[in-house]
């Protein structure tokens, strides 16, 4: 019989989508209030992989990822997703912006072997966590690189995203080495 044990802490990763440049330059400070200091930022990348969000978010959508200094336990991702959804709703209900959905805040976490994304949408490859939140393994780390799955969003397969996730993994592994109780 296997021994029950707790998982290692994971690295919180949050992806932002927005067509409002000022929001992109403000949201990191808001996220740091909730989740602590950011230790790694991706470049700001054009989001050209789909027009799925254009109707509610407008055109010229950009993407940026953040990695957070403080590690989380994997089961914290469900309440974090609830928190980021509430933040999205607060920003949208302010009516300060000319689009229905000014920002999309997508949390997930990374460990040594995978990137997990949280979602409010159920699908065959997603597992229910709690509070209406599901999780999916989006990328698998093997052989020095991240591998995708048939359900992985096309943007997560791109070189720019992959480069950020590799850097974030390096930072995460260094953080783990600094923890002596593992």
Automatic annotation (TrEMBL):
Pfam families: DUF4416 (PF14385). InterPro entries: DUF4416. It comes from the Bacteria. This is GTP-binding protein. It comes from Candidatus Jettenia caeni. The lineage of its organism: Bacteria, Pseudomonadati, Planctomycetota, Candidatus Brocadiia, Candidatus Brocadiales.
């Amino acid at each position: 019989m296997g021994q029950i044990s707790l998982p290692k802490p994971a690295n919180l990763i949050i992806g932002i989508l927005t067509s409002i440049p000022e929001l992109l330059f403000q949201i990191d400070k808001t996220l740091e209030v909730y989740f602590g200091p950011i230790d790694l930022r991706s470049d700001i990348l054009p989001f050209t992989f789909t027009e799925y969000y254009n109707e509610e978010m407008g055109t010229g959508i950009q993407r940026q990822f953040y990695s957070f200094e403080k590690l989380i336990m994997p089961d914290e991702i469900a309440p974090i997703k609830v928190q980021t959804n509430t933040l999205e709703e607060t920003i949208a209900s302010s009516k300060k912006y000319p689009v229905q959905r000014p920002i999309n805040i997508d949390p997930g976490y990374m460990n040594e072997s995978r990137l997990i994304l949280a979602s409010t949408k159920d699908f065959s490859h997603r597992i229910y966590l709690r509070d209406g939140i599901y999780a999916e393994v989006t990328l698998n780390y093997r052989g020095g690189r991240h591998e995708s799955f048939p359900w992985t969003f096309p943007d997560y397969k791109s070189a720019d995203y992959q480069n950020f996730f590799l850097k974030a993994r390096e930072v995460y592994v260094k953080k783990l080495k600094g923890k002596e109780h593992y």
